[in-house]
Design brief:
The protein is mostly helical. It folds into two domains: 1-51, Arc Repressor Mutant, subunit A (Orthogonal Bundle), CATH 1.10.10; 59-205, Tetracycline Repressor, domain 2, CATH 1.10.357.10. The protein is 75% helix and 0% strand. It has eleven helices and no strands. It has helices at residues 2-24, 34-39, 45-48, 55-80, 86-98, 101-116, 120-144, 150-166, 168-171, 175-183, 193-205. The N and C termini lie far apart (60 Å).
Length: 209
């Protein structure tokens, strides 16, 4: 009986995160409340506090799940290829990020607020996952482009990850944003996260290897 209870307890955080993921597909971050999340689960709102103290902590855990999935894709790139050209590597990285729309959306919209309103231990859990993704990118660069020095790899890292934090709105502008840019005379081009990511990676590596 104790084992069953333990299993149930261990699945509850995933249930809460899953509810948050579902709501975020159709609602804005600001609109979602703990009451909304509770309504999508088998838990009462007070019960959620046993696992997460704030809505932001749930979103941080959701972001961690997204990064964990991206890490799996990066591991496949690292382990499944013996060599890649710049074009091939850029395409592989672009493909790895293509299904991580929720990760990119959370980062560009609400990451600062989410981190500020999460407990230090929750933030540390996420930073370990982020560190893993960062390390995998560095390992890929070292493997496929051995001529890159440590300074070049570090430079790639400190440009590429901030790029990921801001790429989503360029590929997914809202109708209001698109209309405002058109009225302001700002030229826009329909594009995708994958295409922008591929162009970024190629630009960062061209002339460096």
């Amino acid at each position: 009986m104790a084992k069953v209870a333990k299993d149930i307890v261990e699945t509850r955080p995933r249930e809460i995160i899953g509810a948050c993921r579902k709501l975020y597909r159709t609602m804005a971050f600001q609109e979602i409340t703990l009451k909304d999340i509770s309504a999508e689960t088998s838990l009462s709102r007070p019960s959620i506090y046993n696992y997460f103290q704030t809505k932001e902590e749930i979103f941080l855990a959701l972001l961690g799940e997204e990064y964990d999935e991206w890490c799996k894709a990066l591991e496949k790139i690292l382990n499944n290829y013996d060599a890649l050209t710049i074009d091939e590597f850029a395409a592989a990285i672009a493909n790895s990020i293509n299904d991580r729309e929720m990760m990119l959306k959370i980062q560009c919209m609400n990451l600062y607020e989410i981190e500020e309103h999460s407990r230090a231990e929750r933030l540390l859990e996420f930073k370990y996952i982020f560190k893993r993704a960062s390390s995998l990118i560095d390992q890929c660069l070292a493997k496929f482009f051995p001529s890159l020095c440590a300074e070049k790899i570090e430079s790639f890292h400190y440009i590429f990850f901030p790029f990921l934090n801001g790429v989503y709105p360029y590929a997914q502008p809202t109708a209001k944003q698109s209309a405002a840019m058109k009225s302001a005379g700002i030229k826009t081009v329909r594009t995708t996260v994958a295409k922008l990511t591929q162009q970024c990676v190629k630009a960062l590596l061209s002339g460096s290897v």
